[in-house]
Write a structure and sequence with these properties.
Elements: E1 4-13, E2 16-26, E3 31-35, H1 42-50, E4 57-62, E5 65-66, E6 77-81, H2 92-102, H3 107-120, H4 136-149, E7 154-158, H5 166-183, E8 186-191, H6 194-200, E9 203-208, E10 211-216, H7 218-223, H8 228-233, E11 240-244, E12 247-249, E13 252-257, E14 260-263, E15 276-280, E16 285-288, E17 296-306, E18 309-316, E19 321-327, E20 336-342, E21 348-351, H9 366-371
Parallel strand pairs: 3-8, 3-9, 6-7, 7-8
Antiparallel strand pairs: 1-2, 1-4, 4-5, 9-10, 11-15, 12-13, 13-14, 15-21, 16-20, 17-18, 17-20, 18-19
Helix pairs in contact: 2-3, 2-4, 3-4
Bound molecules: adenosine-5'-diphosphate (ADP) and magnesium ion (MG).
Length: about 375
């Protein structure tokens, strides 16, 4: 097994950087989820690691060994893609066996190798069939089995669940992390689905326009996203964003929501006077009585079910739209005037100009003391 190390990798196509100084490390045996919008460079990054694309600058190390100049076949990397890419004229068995055939494994070794991964992926009963006889789910498992058959040190999975139905995707989301852990393989798992990224990666690397915007655990990305753009991508419905300029009174920093003072984390006193964006998750807003402290009047426009939640669209008196989410079945107004309480103390604050998150300072921080 081997860890993956990328050091300042840059790749340009016709002068445009598809990868721009990407550095990351995946420790041996860990799965990193690589998440980013379409065109952000995810596939190019995998291809650089596999050796099918040569970077313009930077180094690729696998298991501590610099493989930047090495051909793909010497790198011990297995790859699977979203479009399955099976050989149509070959049986599932022969498709899975392809990497073992290529390195001339003895027939008995080859058979044992194919049967091992086929069992692991629960397709041992369809090994004799041609791809066109397989269901989409079986095709996808066959492609995964092929990527894993050679017991690669490094496994690169390029959005492998993109083209399978929701039920199978859900099953595989549960199954794959255990499978990868059991194999002890170091893996990069590309996805454009934030839930999948959170389910599959011990850590998630977020890629924007060829640059790593953040690498962190799913929990950190959700609760402390590095930028507003990341905050918007992780969460469904998306985070509410409100332009605010924090002020302070005797109780500490606050933001104005309608005519109410919404208290902010005391550690955000250093953001007073700065043009900011307040990010409030839909589940951090709840309906309350008009007399409740801090109740903000809104008009409920519509509601819609979303999985196990009910999502409501409400508009404040100043015309700002809010998405509010509550567990399905929990009572709430479907339409008309109502009041909401916003958990502003736990809201995220971003710089309006740069989009960077403004982190609360720990209590008794030096800067707060100096500003007082
Ligand atoms: P994604 O994150 O969707 O996988 P890609 O890695 O495929 O994105 O592509 C990143 C950028 O690099 C895109 O702008 C794409 O057009 C460009 N690109 C990728 N491969 C090539 C190529 N072989 N020639 C020219 N441009 C490419
Ligand atoms: Mg891609």
């Amino acid at each position: 097994m081997a860890g993956i190390d990328l050091d300042n990798v840059t790749k340009r196509f016709k002068g445009t950087a598809a990868l721009d100084g990407v550095s990351l490390t995946v420790p041996e045996g860990e799965t990193l989820a690589l998440f980013g919008p379409s065109g952000s460079g995810k596939t190019v990054l995998l291809r650089v690691i596999a050796g099918v694309v040569q970077p313009d600058a930077g180094r690729v190390r696998l298991g501590g060994r610099d493989v930047t100049e090495e051909p793909p076949e010497d790198r011990g990397v297995g790859m699977a893609f979203q479009n399955f890419a099976l050989f149509p004229h070959m049986s599932a068995f022969d498709n899975i066996a392809a990497p073992l055939t290529a390195r001339r494994d003895a027939p008995s070794v080859l058979k044992a190798g194919v049967e091992r991964v086929a069992k692991l992926l629960k397709i041992d009963h369809v090994l004799g069939q041609a791809p066109r006889q397989l269901s989409n789910g079986q095709k996808q498992r066959t492609a995964l089995a092929r990527a894993m058959a050679g017991q690669p040190k490094v496994l690169l999975l390029d959005d492998p669940l993109r083209n399978v139905d929701a039920k199978l995707r859900f099953e595989m989301r549960l199954e794959l992390p255990r499978l990868l852990a059991r194999e002890g393989v170091t893996a990069i798992y590309v996805t454009q689905d934030y839930r999948e990224a959170m389910a599959l990666g011990k850590r998630i690397a977020v890629l924007f326009e060829g640059r790593i915007a953040q690498i962190a655990t799913p929990d950190e990305i959700y609760h402390a996203p590095a930028t507003l753009a990341i905050a918007k991508l992780f969460g469904d419905p998306a985070i509410n964003v409100l332009d605010v300029t924090p002020e302070r009174d005797a109780h500490g920093p606050f933001a104005r929501l309608s005519d109410r003072r919404a208290p902010l984390d005391p550690g955000l006193a250093h953001a007073v006077g700065r043009a900011c964006v307040l990010g409030v998750r839909p589940e951090a807003i709840r309906f309350v009585d008009a007399e409740a402290p801090g109740a903000v009047p809104v008009t409920v426009e519509a509601e819609t079910p979303l999985n196990e939640k009910t999502v409501t669209l409400a508009v404040t008196r100043r015309g700002r739209e809010l998405l509010i989410s509550r567990p399905a079945g929990a009572p709430g107004p479907a339409t008309g005037p109502a009041h909401v309480a916003v958990d502003s103390v736990h809201a995220l604050l971003f710089d309006r100009e740069t989009g960077a998150r403004i982190a609360p300072e720990p209590p008794g921080g030096a800067i707060r003391g100096a500003a007082a």
